[in-house]
Amino acid sequence: MIIIICGSMPKLVIIYGTGSHNTERMANAIEEGAREEGVETVLKNVNEANKNDLNEADAIAIGSPNYNHAMMPTVQKFLNGLADIELAGKVGLAFGSYGWSFEATQGINNKLKSYGVEMINDLNIKRMPGDEELEICRRAGSLLACKIKK
Ligand SMILES: Cc1cc2nc3c(=O)[nH]c(=O)nc-3n(C[C@H](O)[C@H](O)[C@H](O)COP(=O)(O)O)c2cc1C
Q1: What pTM did the predictor assign?
Q2: Structural domain of 83
Q3: Are the C-beta atoms of residues 97 and 72 closer than 8 Å to each other?
Q4: In the prediction, which pLDDT does 6 show?
Q5: How many domains does the chain have?
Q6: How confident is the model at residue 8 (pLDDT cuts 50, 70, 90)?
Q7: How many angstroms is it from 22 CA to the middle of ligand 1?
Q8: Is ligand 1 within 6 A of the CB of residue 66?
Q9: Please, are residues 60 and 15 in contact by the beta-carbon 8 Å criterion?
Q10: For residue 150, is pLDDT > 80?
């Protein structure tokens, strides 16, 4: 007997900008946490990302550090380009490293929400994430994964 199993695993797509790798460290840990829960992941620097990367996503995590009270222009441009993609009903996370203010993650959250994405709480880590902060990022990845597992 041949058994064919159809259907794909739930998928989390993580796209981030970073200047000095702190937000990238967060992104890697979010991916680790999601993989521990057995979901498929795609992880890309925004410079290599394309809006079509989000097509098959059940959850999307978008990250940017806070520079000059704003998200990185590359991340802003990527988000602006998503207007014609169907994102409503997907689960979302805004994350990023910061020094003293939260405009980047707030901006990501607002934009994704305007596209109908169901956002979980923003994940802000001050400067370089240490072991404890990386664990918090892993947990956020696991939470996203749990929300999209059938
Ligand atoms: C030129 C410059 C401007 C910054 N502006 C802000 C800011 O407006 N608000 C803030 O919270 N942090 C600010 N920071 C701190 C960064 O958000 C922080 O260093 C962060 O860890 C960078 O993340 P990354 O390594 O992913 O690029 C600034 C840092 C630099 C170098």
Answers
A1: 0.96
A2: 11-148
A3: no
A4: 57
A5: 1
A6: confident
A7: 10
A8: yes
A9: yes
A10: no
Is 93 inside a domain boundary? Answer: yes
- How many CA atoms are closer than 13 Å to the CA of 95, on its beta-carbon side? 32
| Max Cα–Cα distance, the chain, nearest Å | 62
Determine the atom of ligand 1 nearest the C-alpha atom of 101. 11
Shortest-distance atom of ligand 1 to CA 21: 25
Domain membership of residue 5 (yes or no) is no
Q: What pLDDT is recorded for position 4? A: 60
130 domain-assigned: yes
Could you tell me if the CB of 23 is within 6 A of ligand 1? yes
Q: What is the pLDDT of residues 110-139, one digit of tens each?
A: 999 999 999 999 999 999 999 999 999 999
**Ligand 1 geometric centre to CA of 125 (Å):** 11
Q: Which residue has tokens 């993989």?
A: 35
Residue 110 near ligand 1, beta carbon < 6 Å = no
pLDDT of residue 110: 98
3 found inside a domain: no
CATH number at residue 49: 3.40.50.360
